[in-house]
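HUMAN: I'm a chemist; might I ask for a sequence paired with its structure tokens?

ASSISTANT:
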Amino acid sequence: MDAITEAIEVALRRVEATEATILAWTLVDAPGARAAAERAPDGPLRGLPFGVKDIIDVAGLPTECGSPLRRGRIATDDAWLVEALRRAGAVPLGKTVTTEFAYFQPGPTRNPHDVTRTPGGSSSGSAAAVAAGMVPLALGSQTAGSLTRPASYCGVAGYVAPVGTWSTRGITGLSPSLDAPGLMTPTVADLAAAIAAVDGTTIDATDRPRVLLWRGTELADIAPSMRDALDHTRRVLLETGAEIGDLDIRTPELAEAHAVVMAYEAARSLAAESEQPSALSEPLRELLEQGRRTPHAAYRTALKTAITARTRVLDMLTDVDAILGAAAPGPAPRGLQATGSPVLSRPWQLLGLPAVTVPGHRDASGMPLGLQLLGHPDRVGRLLHVARCVEALAGLRRGT
């Protein structure tokens, strides 16, 4: 058995050993993965198995979006991101669980670190599959904390591409102004390798990191353990010669504008689905109703708020490499009936910034705590450099 075939078989064995507990997958396509591995091109990710969030098309497989309204719908083509990874030699293993239409209604997936806790949403299955060691790479998307939050809760590295830079072709979207594809891997180094394979971006490590700290307390009640992780990171970055300042921008109005844009656009993206309200969850029905009630003038005002704030923040990010903050208010909450708060992602998704979730910190009970770094869309290489530094410092804290 060659190394490529063995990588697929290792993943399938790991799925068999853990899936009954974690419930990360809607479909594992073992025959398709084996066949794809045999004809995988000789690219940088040749033979690497990956999971695909079930709002993202894989030709010949269902894309059901966590909803009975899409049950049995078979994709005829690969999504752009799946195509890009196939060209790099990677092999789709199957489809991972998503919340309903990538909103709030949870699927069955459990957090691998504590199965009584949520893995987050909406890229829940992808985050859990990577955290449980089933696959070394999984695809997600983000509209409101849909990738950064599960990455934080499950203790994996995550990347959200700048809005508009990676095509959303073949992805069932919720809000065109906010939707962005992304990736999850065990470490930032793995993440950087996958990003390089997709679009050629490489880590830019020419200078010492320059960072603005964002505490997020104006938007959320940040858990003491998360505050401690953020303070520790600030302190050790300073000790290693990084430049650290404080972010000076009002984020509550950006979070509010994000909510307006998301509801307004979701009501139009899912207009056909809203005609069958009995097939939708209560949270999704409420979102779509809110969007239908939102005046167009309010929507336009929210977009203007985004444009003005984006200009200001991009100016800041020409002088620094990243904004550092918490990726979620704390560790994954107990229970599986909700997916946690996305509020700490809302301002930055509104502005279309690239985001990296950095794993490594833990609370006293051993639950993961992820930090997020936001960067300039034209300087993702620098963002990845800072993320690699922050991850290394978290590892030193654990004594690894």
Remarks:
- The chain has 13 helices and eleven strands.
- The CA atoms of residues 10 and 89 lie 17 Å apart.
- The domain at 210-252+303-398 is CATH 3.90.1300.10 (Amidase signature (AS) enzymes).
